What does this fold into?
Amino acid sequence: MGCGASAEASKGGDSSQPNRDDRAKDKKAAKDENKEYQAKMQFLEHVPLMKRLPKDQHPLVASVCEIKDFAPKENIIKQGDVGEEFFVIKSGEASVSVKTPEGVKKVATLKAGDYFGENALLRDEPRTATITAETAMQTLKITRKAFQDLGLNDQLQFANRRAVGGGGGQAIQKAKEPTPKTEEDIRLISEALRSNENLATMTMLDDARVSAFIEVMWK
It folds into this structure.
């Protein structure tokens, strides 16, 4: 009988194996989730928009951010649509275009650290521009509910971009031609841009971005 019992146990297998497998999967899932959360936290610390947000609020923001990927040429938001999400670009580039009486015009390029979609949540207005992925993109998405629950409309300082967003169909004025600049002009403008705290909350001021600003400036 002893042999029979052993054979039956062998036939039934180890009943604890599925439980061990489930625990291993849960542990891996928790580890991956924690790793993703930490990556969000590290990224948000370097986003200019978040610089004025109290540090103790960063974990709350990271917890409501959803990772959303977009393929090249994919429209992320469309001018005129109802908006329910706000986005921060983690990687990749996007173009901003608006419909004008003369047709569709590209008015800006957004890069990692830039954000979009805030106007619809701040003012309950339709999307004021179309945002299209120029490259493969990864973004952090915050829903309207999370945006409002965390009071981000009051805690974050957003740029006034109604003109860039089309202002509900307003025509874009033609820009003046850039003014020629000396090396001393470039140095002084660069220092002024980098020391501007308000500008630093709106975009990442790397060398390329500063040079682009200086190139189009006029007196």
User: Anything to note?
Assistant: DSSP finds nine helices and eight strands in the chain. The beta strands are 66-70, 75-77, 85-91, 94-100, 103-110, 115-116, 130-133, 137-143. The two ends are 100 Å apart (CA to CA). The first strand starts at residue 66 and ends at 70.
